[in-house]
Amino acid sequence: MTRRRAGTWIGVLALGIVLALAPVSIASASQYRPITHHEATTHHKSKHTKAKPKANAKASKPAPGGTWSAAKSIDPGNGLVSVSCPSTTFCVTVDASTGHSGNGGNAFTYNGTSWSAPVVVDTVTSLVSVSCPTTRFCAAVGDDGSAFTYNGSSWTTSSDVDTNPFESVSCASSSFCVAVDNSAGALTWNGSAWSSPQTVGSGNGGPNSAVSCPSTSFCAAIGGS
Fold first, then answer.
1. Per-residue pLDDT tens for 65-94?
2. 145 closest CA partner among 128, 169, 162, 122
């Protein structure tokens, strides 16, 4: 729904300019002297010389920005919870839902033009996060501690790697991901397997709500108590 806020018009009244004439004193003849040829020539040139444009003036550039496409329903009745795009022609989004084929979490792939039909990834429970560092690798995690990987054409079967529900996953490459759970745990993917949970933060058992890994040597995680 689009809301409009009532606007207020502001008018500006332009006042006429009043010129005041000051008395002009008349100089005596003794105050005048003949104008030399050099002064007359200089005055004539300055009067007809045009101002040159600045050499450093730059052409104005259009303001940055873009427009969003119209919304398109690709998962009616379910809630999309995460999306990751390593390029303009490849994205993956996952949902937290009852699934299209029984209970489970689904994934959808974007090819630059349209979204695919849903693919059931987690047949038991909902997916909560997905991360795709390349078009040939993605990692997705579920709210039952399960983790899945995508190789560019298909998803692996469920692998229960955590006894606590996951909250977020981030991958810097196909051989490095970090997933965090709701009990202050963080697990690392090395390209073939997930590590055991490592406690991060204060260790008070609070949830880690999100993680981001821009490189294989740095990640940032946030959480609450």
1. 789 999 999 988 788 999 999 999 999 999
2. 162
Residue 23: DSSP 8-state: P
H or E element in which residue 187 lies: strand 185-189
Residues 162 and 185 sit within 8 Å (Cβ to Cβ): yes
Residue type, 105: G
Count other C-beta atoms under 10 Å from residue 156's C-beta. 13
> In whole angstroms, what separates CA 140 from the centre of its chain?
21
Residue 89, both tokens: 């022609």
Sign of the CA dihedral with 217 first, then 218, 223, and 225 last = positive
CATH of 79-223, one of 3.30.930.10, 1.25.40.10, 3.90.180.10, 2.130.10.10: 2.130.10.10
Q: Which residues of 33-52 are buried (b: 16+ CB within 10 A; e: fewer)?
A: eeeeeeeeeeeeeeeeeeee
Q: Are 119 and 110 in contact (CB under 8 A)?
A: no
* Span 126-166, pLDDT tens digits: 999 999 999 999 999 999 999 999 999 999 988 899 999 99
Note the maximum CA span of the chain: 111
Angstrom distance (rounded) from CA 197 to CA 221 = 14
Alpha-carbon distance of 208 to 157, in angstroms, equals: 25
